[in-house]
Design goal:
8 strands, 287 residues, 3-stranded antiparallel β-sheet, alpha+beta
Amino acid sequence: MRSTNICRFCRYCALGLGLNLLIVESIADASGVSTSAALRPSPGARSSGVQFGDGVLSVNAKDVALIELLDEIGRRSGLTVVPLVTLAQRVDVTFDRLPLEQGLRQILRHRSFALKYTPTTRGQARAETLWILPQGDEKYEAQGPRLANASSNKVGQRNIDDEISQLRSTLSNSDSEYRQQAAVELGAQANVNAVSPLRQALTDSDADVQQAAIFSLAQIGGTESALALATALHDSNPRIREQAIEALGDVGGAVAMGLIEKALTDDVAVVRLAASETLEQLRGTGR
């Protein structure tokens, strides 16, 4: 992720795709929101420290695990929270009656995240899915049940094939962060038709996009995903090859094992070690 002291907001609808995906890059202390106006006690907060109603969020949390706070907000607002990275930090957050999006920016002002919207019957947009993204050297972490929930909430009456086609088009966008989020969203489809565009994303010039594609293929699983991951095993970046091996370990099966065995002869020692350890784990679990 690029370091920045500003928040950038980009919507897919601006590209004519109508997906209303809000990408937020929020690093360091600047959140674009006046803390003097937003951070003040919430006298009516419940014991949980979270109140939500009519699109307005109030939080009064002291030394609370970030993931627990986000899960509570998700339960009260109907937002599906999908952390794609381990969230170990604890936070102190206090504000009263902020719009949901603005409140999330306050809570996640030190993190990168993406917020997806869906249209309502009144023609407005409702926040539907929140992804917490890796930063720097952080790794994508599997969140299978959460991704499954995100996918089931998201599908509704939409045509999945049309959405996959739109996301495939986004993989050609000049902005790497659009491409990264498209790769994440393709994985959330949990559909084998998403494998082909994800294979395309494995050859992206940006390592974050490649990493997102690897993660998504591991989430989709199956033989087709394993075959697609073979592309990443030939990447010039040893780290991408190592991550592909780890993803193949998550996919499992005879095809995945065969590909991992070929990686035992990789030119880089750390990649060979990853292959050896992953094979040992697969054989131990009988996958």
